Amino acid sequence: MCTAIRQSGGASKTFARGRSPGNRIMSKRILHVVSNVAHYADPSQPTGLWLSELTHAHHIFAARGYEQQLVSPKGGVSPLEPRSLKWPHADAASKAWRADKANAALLAHTARPDEIDPAGFDAIYFTGGHAVMWDYPDDAGLQRLTREIYEHGGIVSSVCHGYCGLLNTKLSNGSLLVAGRRITGYSWVEEILAGVAKKVPYNVEQQMRERGARYEKALLPFTSNVVVDGRIVTGQNPQSAKATAEQVVALLSLGAPAHV
Fold it and tell me: Which portions of the sequence form the region Disordered (predicted)?
């Protein structure tokens, strides 16, 4: 599968959290964000975390020896999007994750934002699924984690609808994190083609543009597309999860981009 990678911003030589005071290499730490929402506005229509958006990234980070933790707006259970568990969306990685009891426990017992010290993480990664359109955008706890991780030199990343979590995050100077930044995420065309445009609460692509983000998307829907703008890494859709995580790894390995 071909992935479009659009990148801007140079990289510094070192990453602030790369070494301990004793100059020992430290393991990077990734904070995954997942949803607590289990259905659309109509309770009879289930939704939740799109599992592969977590499992593909988790696998990439685990292969590098990174420590990983899950957080959700309310803590506790993160429901799964039923469609993500069926063919053709449920791949080997997703099936293996569900078969592992330890992994299942991670999704049953996620932390709350107020239980997380953002100073301990090198990157935050927002997973998607339509569920996040309800509980990500206005969650003050997630906004605090995102702001503090970014402002201490960390990476902010998202995949698919995960960019809903970036919509309203403001930096300490009061500016929106996404204003003027190159961003991608699930497009309105993809919402229409997926048959859910009438079920979602808003057009997140439009919302991003209204906040001053420079939204970009692939020419072909449902193809892998990743945009890197400094220390903000965003993937367009479920097909982009692996490549998004790989770009986060690249930044952590080579050093965080210097421009903010």
Answer: 1-21
Number of structural domains (the chain) is 1
pTM: 0.91
- 134 touches 211 (CB < 8 A): no
Report angle CA 2, 238, 18 to the nearest 5 degrees. 85
Amino acid letter for position 176: L
* Angle at 172 (CA atoms; ends 131, 15), nearest 5 degrees: 85
Give the pLDDT confidence score for residue 260 in this predicted structure: 40
Query: Does any domain span residue 185?
Result: yes
Of 163, 170, 164, the C-alpha closest to 148 is 170
In-domain check, residue 49? yes
In a domain, 260, yes or no: no
Domain that holds residue 140: 4-254
Half-sphere exposure of 199 (CA within 13 A, CB side): 18
The answer to the question of residue 120 being in a domain is yes
Residue with tokens 């009891």: 101
Taking alpha carbons only, the member of 124, 113, 130 closest to residue 50 is 130
Q: What is the pLDDT of residues 20-42, one digit of tens each?
A: 444 345 689 999 999 999 999 99
Are the C-beta atoms of residues 127 and 34 closer than 8 Å to each other?
yes
Query: What is the C-alpha R_g of the chain?
Result: 17
Q: What CATH number did the domain enclosing 195 receive? A: 3.40.50.880
- Please check whether residue 57 is in contact with residue 125, taking contact to mean a CB–CB distance below 8 angstroms: yes
